[in-house]
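Sequence in, structure out.
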Amino acid sequence: MKKNQIEDEKQRQDMFPWSRTTFHSEYNKYLAYYKVLSCLENSKGTTLLDMPCGDGLLTKMFAEKFERVVGVDASAPHVKAARELLPDLEFHECLIEDLKINEKFDSVFMLDVLEHVIDPVELLKKASSFMKDDGVMIVHVPNSNAINRKLNVIMGSLKSCDELSPFDINIAGHRRSYTLESLEKEITQAGLKVTSMGGIFLKLLSTPQMDWFLKNGLWDSGHGWGREGIEGVDWKEEFCRASYELGKSRPEDCNVIYACISK
């Protein structure tokens, strides 16, 4: 990217207000937990480059498992929040395309970023330059074929599964959506190898509906979920755990899809 493109893109990223703790906080709390769990199940080594790190919510959980964590984000408000949350960690406020550090990492996480950028193939190439030769890069992207989007197409509230909503465009700043096939194609175009792919969280409802459901659903035993007479079970926690576990066998239907990548 040219200097003026980098400056324009940096300003663009500062505009979007989305964060996991601001929008749909209950659903994003659970989704964040399972995104982290999926990353840890597929990560390598003791050093991590987390980009974009956002407001540090996921980075904080990663920092409990890795000896060294470096965070990168283009949004000034996000980096400020991450530094306040994790003052002992190293953060860089810049586009990934403009990152300049002389270090390679065991694991490179690129969660929820390819859908935002101008050129995802070039970004994958850039990110892989920070990965050790035997390291792993893990990429998460939204799945346009998620089961809730398929339902919405049949209902008529979406014209197609890959249609971007006003929220996607104006709040989250998405430029595109992904399928397992399109994600794998871009990784291959970047000259990288896909070692495994999968899905995270089987989601039947839209994100705001899921958020409302988790906050207000009937979770007591015998009155919505769970068997009558079973005590001491948090059925909301169990519902989310089951949605994650079931999603492992149905990645094409999940809210998020991921790829594990090697050089």
